[in-house]
Amino acid sequence: MSTETDQEHPCLPGGLIALEQWQAPETSIRKTLRTGVRDILDQLRASIHPEEQAFRSLDDLPLLTPDRLRQYAPPPDAAEVTRAILAQLETREALRGRSVSFLVVPPFSGLARSLADSGRRVITPPDNLLLSEQDARSWWQRQLSGDHWVIPELADFWLRHRSGLPLLKELFALLASDKAGTGLIGCSSWCWQFWANYLPELPVAPVTPAPLDGERLVRWLDHLARSQTGQSLTVRMTHDGLYVLPAPEQAGQIKYSSFAQDLASLARGNPGVALAIWRRALRARPEAESEGDDVKSEGDLEAVTSSGPGCWVAPLDQLSLPAVPQSVGRHSSHVLHALLLHEGLSEEQLALVTGLSHREVDLTLGRCQRAELVTVADTGTYFHVTPLGYPAVRKYLLSRGYPADGFGE
Amino acid sequence: MDESGLQQALESISSVAVAEAFALVVIASVLIVLIQKLASALAEKLSGKPRLYLLATVPLARLLIIVVTVILIVPILVEPSFENMVAIFGALALAIGFAFKDYINSLIAGLVTLYEMPYRPGDWIEVNGYYGEVRSIGIRAAEIVTLDDTVIVIPHGVLWNTLLANGNDGSHNLMCVAELFLEPNHDVAQMQALLRDVIYTSPLTRTYQPVVVAVTDTEEGMRYRLKGYPLEPRDQTRFISDLTARASEVCHEQGVKLLCRSRRE
User: Which residue of A has its CA nearest to B199?
Assistant: First the structure.
């Protein structure tokens, strides 16, 4: 159902909601059971054939060229997203009378990082995160002296080490005593979950972007493509020709696939993960033997796209997304969890927070990179979990008892 | 008991019927062993709830096989009339009751464990000073594996008159305690805060479960108990070791001496 917020800010479908209102997109019982059985079978199969399971496509259809991909499925416009967030926050916080806004976002949404372009004074973390409580207090007093500051990602300000906690402890103490001025804090959902447990009486009421259900996801993907091409993108399934895009109200009486609902459910409403999978699923042509209503061959692409740009999308079960090898031990799971908790870490920081030796960290990172679960940032220093590997990593960590973010149930 | 009825019922048993019944017992036994081995092997490959569910199905599957086997064997051996049943089961109950009193006691207790579930496969229990993970629940006894990888066989019969401590009671939440004795005359509040950080920053801690640092003044020194939940019950040894090592580092940094057993006594 389209809301007023969706119309006003198509880049932020559903707008911002209170954290406790967040709910995962609904999925059918049949799909839940099928996913559960498949997970168990995958675990057993992986123990029989323990090879690394990086991404592989199960079809041989051509991918879109990089240029087309940038055109049809571009990353969100950071400036536009920032404007939408600020507009939403101003309305909410004016009503609540809070001086510091707190935005909790799931990984890969890109929302927190876009706050850096908000035009406010950006506070960046100190080079050394291992400060004493006294030094941390003085540091914050210097940083928060003026108004209208922004912390794009709070996870950059701490390390899960007994000497790496004071900076955030002091910040939360200042927030509690209302001595932090006026500002905006972005925080990864994993980092937030740790601190919400560590300090259960935190004096903040975080907001979070509404999860993308199938309908919102369609509108959002349509909006992204339109921002580049100026027209609605037409996307149909490679195997049966059913429509995924454009958004329903623009297309009249046409048959739609359940792809968008399935994608929203797989990504658990996370736009960054959904976009990454969407980009992997887009194809330049359909299956030759397709028996769709009017889609028979490659030549029909022109017919499909006659009203604007168009392409095809492979069914989700034709994509084999990166999986966590079952043979991995605690080292890999410690590293993956630490990377999510801190939104990326260097090798040295990983060794500090996991208690592993540098050699063990190095070996583990290499293995996770081969499995496409971890990637290294452009600077070559910081490692991150990949958006395509995130669903598998999250599920794996949960099954091993690790504390995950609250965006699960 | 009608002795002539029993005699009549037993006389009608042919050697072919005995062979068939024996074959059924063998098949049932092989099936039970196969299910136990297969379930244990598969459980090692799984984690989380699927592992517990799989292990929990083994005793039920075995009970089902036994019941089905008995239902199949009785009509093969004797005509399943009311008189025959009363005669045979009456005689068997009397004979077995005297000869295998303890065995039957454990068998019945085994049935009670299926209903009351005082322990399930995957639980960490302590019985008569033995602590370990329940590996399997048999008809007569349960097997636990201790932290030193020793298998202990516990007859279900001990349930009737023994206290049993179950650490996780069918869940994944097993509280562990790392204990330290420190020299007195230090800032206790600060030490408590530092040790709380130790628990929260251990990568093996379930941070969404309660974390507690309890302190008591004893004759042996200041006794700190670091309580937390490991990621998985199987991690308990590593978890307690990790907490102890990290806590020792903190004490060293703060200049507070740890008291070892010999110095405490």
Answer: A162
Measured between CA atoms, how close is A142 to chain B, in angstroms?
26
Structural domain spans, chain B: 3-99, 124-166, 176-264
Residues from chain A that touch B197, judged by Cβ atoms under 8 A, are 162, 165
Question: Which of A162, A400, A401 has the CB atom closest to B250's CB atom?
Answer: A162
Distance CA B135, CA B191 (A): 39
Q: Which residues of B touch A47 (CB under 8 A)?
A: 45
Q: Write down the ipTM of this complex.
A: 0.85
The class (CATH top level) of B176-264 is alpha beta
Distance (Å) from the C-alpha of residue A193 to the closest C-alpha of chain B? 8
**pTM metric for this prediction:** 0.81
Encode pLDDT of B21-72 as tens digits.
899 999 998 998 888 888 877 777 776 667 767 776 777 787 788 888 888 8
- A20-52 pLDDT tens trace: 888 888 766 666 677 677 666 666 666 555 454
pLDDT digits (tens, 9 = 90+) for A216-253: 999 999 999 888 878 888 888 888 888 888 877 655 67
CA-CA distance, B157 to B141, in Å (whole number)? 8
Helix (H) or strand (E) holding A244: strand A243-245
Relative to beta strand A149-151, strand A183-188 is parallel
Mutate to test the interface with A, among B40, B55, B175, B197 (most CBs of A within 10 A): B197
CB A188 within 8 A of CB A154: yes
| Residues A65, A309: Cα–Cα separation, whole Å | 14
Instruction: State whether residue A285 is helix, strand or coil.
Output: coil
Q: How far apart are CA A343 and CA B182, in angstroms?
A: 37
CB A186 within 8 A of CB A16: no
Least CB-CB distance to A198: which of B48, B198, B207? B207
d(CA B232, CA B49): 11
Please state, in angstroms and rounded to a whole number, the distance separating the CA atoms of residues A295 and A302.
11
Spatial separation of the C-alpha atoms in residues A331 and A351, rounded to whole Å: 11
Task: Tell me which fold the domain B124-166 belongs to.
Answer: SH3 type barrels. (2.30.30)
Euclidean distance between CA atoms A254 and A234, whole angstroms: 12
| Chain B residue at shortest CA distance from A341 | B203
Q: How far is CA B11 from the centre of its chain?
A: 44
CB A322 within 8 A of CB A372: yes
Give the chain A residue whose CA is nearest to the CA of B231: A401
Nearest to A402 among B45, B197, B231 (CB): B231
Residue partners of A58: CB distance under 8 A and separation at least 6: A317, A318, A319, A320
Q: Is residue B225 exposed (0-12), middle (13-18) or buried (19+ Cβ within 10 Å)?
A: middle
Residue of A nearest to B50 (CA): A40
